[in-house]
Amino acid sequence: MRNIWIVIKHEIKVTIGKPSFWLTTFLLPAVIIALSAGSQLLAHSSLAEGGANPFSANSGSSNNKADIGYVDEAGLIKQIPDRIEFGGAGSSVFVVSPDRLRKFSDRASAQAALEAGELQQYYVVAADFLKSGNLTLVDRNFSLFTSLDSSGFFEYIINYNLAGNENLAKMLSNPIKSTTTKQLAPKPARDPKDALTTIVPLAALLIFYLVLTMTSQFMLQSVTKEKENRTAEVLLLSLRPRDLMLGKVVGLGFVALLQVAIWAAVGLTGLNTSGANYILPDGFLVWGVLYFVLGYLLYGSVFAALGALAPNTREGSQFTFIALLPLMLPLFLSNAFAQSPNDALPVVLSLFPLTSPTSMITRLSATSVPIEQLLIGLVLLAATTYLFVLLSARFFRADTLLSGDSLSFRRLIREFRQKAA
Amino acid sequence: MTPTVTISHVAKSFGQVHAVEDVSFEVYAGEIFGLLGPNGAGKTTTIRMMLDIFKPERGEVSVLGGAIDEAKKNRIGYLPEERGLYKDLKLEATLIFLATLKGVSETTARKKAVDWLKRLDLYDHRQKKIQELSKGMQQKAQVIATLLHDPDLIVVDEPFAGLDPVNTRLIEDIIREQQQAGKTIVMSTHQMYQVEALCGRIALINKGRTVLYGEVDQIKHNFAGNAIVVKGQGDFTNVPGVLETRHTNGDWHMALAAGANPQDVFKALAAREGLKIERFEIAEPSLDDIFISVVQGNPEALNA
After folding, report:
1. Between A233, A238, A399, which is nearest B101 by CB?
2. With an 8 Å Cβ cutoff, is A231 touching chain B?
3. What is the residue extent of each domain of chain A?
4. How far apart are CA A352 and CA A89, in angstroms?
5. ipTM of this predicted complex?
6. What is the SS3 assignment for B278?
7. Considering only alpha carbons, which residue of chain B is nearest residue A9?
8. How confident is chain B (304 residues) per 10-residue block, as mean pLDDT?
């Protein structure tokens, strides 16, 4: 027991003594925040400068200059409505004065006006529009962050002329004004329009995923380095292989918890100081810790076994992608987890033990998960973790730790069959 | 006297490879025992079985009075053939970590580490990472890691690897010092002159089997050629019972006839007028010769 504790202390000391640990702990979130803030700033500055969208705040209804042209080759537009109102249903509503529209008889004259700087953009309604539905927009500017015709401006004018009625035109442009959703889950899902509905679950998922993968990598390195340095041979004369594994798993577990605590503290502080009204469900912390610890034990033991079998870190790393694939699945489906956390796929993934450590915590941060699902997921995860730890301990033996044999799929399968038998 | 180490007919295979088939020897308290053999003979596997790192498939191992347990492991110091230290950790921290795993308190380990580091001229390098040290320094660091917890049984596999003559002498002195302190030492090496200089008894392993075992002097005597070497003044030719006489580097090498007794030759020389005998000895092969002869499967060649 004394030696296990010494190994635990050693692993903690060595891992947090690495500059790479602190770099990833602080630099990675900083880079993510900087990238996110940077893109927001760029978009903001682009819009602030007027951007390319002629319907942005700066060039809104107060602008009465006829700077939007159109060429009606189909002869469809008989009348311009007195009030051009478009947008809505999740986006802003714009009102544009009809004085801003200027009709051109042909494309050449519209193009000449555009080139002369009289127009910002012009539309061309193709002669076969009723058959093809083709509309061409020619714009002076290009913007990375704003759509040139995101707001359905000209669509409204066409609808108005086709329907001959302002109300019907509005209905055609935006048929559903509001949707009332009734969730069967105990608490209603969050407002899908709220950016935090997507951001918070994604952040929780990223924190769990990154810490689990990084700590698993630390485990792999720790074991393979002892093999490469031949330190394993000296250590095995002081403690049993399973004690060595236990010391490593627990030691790196503390490191992982420290990292989660730092990231979670940064995230929660950010959430609180931003004044956002986003309240995490009751017991989030307790469930989070339970799922994280079991998830870490599961993947940590898998990587300990991988390290015991691989002759060096490089060969061991070749198998990390496959080993971590189940944890990545929720990452690929993060939108589904955030927007529809109680759909069949997120529920199944949050109960399946290999995916539940990240999936359940993502669901839990997105919605209120029924207690029975939390318990079933936890029991399944605990049982699987127990089996994996036992199995991994079988790989953690003197003959594997002192072996220099190359690690291949064939050997992995052979060893697995032998040890699992 | 009860042996400190008893290896009795042990065997160990890895898959289809029979690393050790039948190895037996005993090591007694306070002796330096040489474990010899060519590369791949099974020495390291035998050592690992002796240290309970591997379990033998057959045979028995007894160390420090019985089967190895966790408490006994703390009484053993092991210097593996390939250096077993964390390359990216600092020297002093590594030594303390390994010593604490052997039951030594951190305070004692720190104090002892300082003493050893000073003695082996590594004190100024104690805060360096091990990978920053030279090969010789790393080997000395490994020696400290082996001895820091003051073990009763010391197992050293190629302890002189990478050392210059000065440091080789230093480690030789340390090994002798440990022996004088009553420690039991098992030394595996390819350097035969070190074995002749340090070991009282040896076991030679070849192809997983003990092929030679006993006291170094006795083995050499057993392998002694049918020849004598004499140093002196006068005419040493035409001596009865001597087939051939060669005068090389001031020594007379005499090949004896079959059935001739060196004692009779000595008497004949002593009786001869005008001869002054300064040295008379039965020619013995070196351990190097014995090693090569045994490993090449022709031990009788040295007796010819």
Report:
1. A238
2. yes
3. 2-32+194-420, 68-173
4. 37
5. 0.77
6. strand
7. B97
8. 90 88 93 90 91 91 89 91 83 93 92 94 92 90 93 92 88 93 92 86 90 87 76 89 84 79 88 89 77 65 42
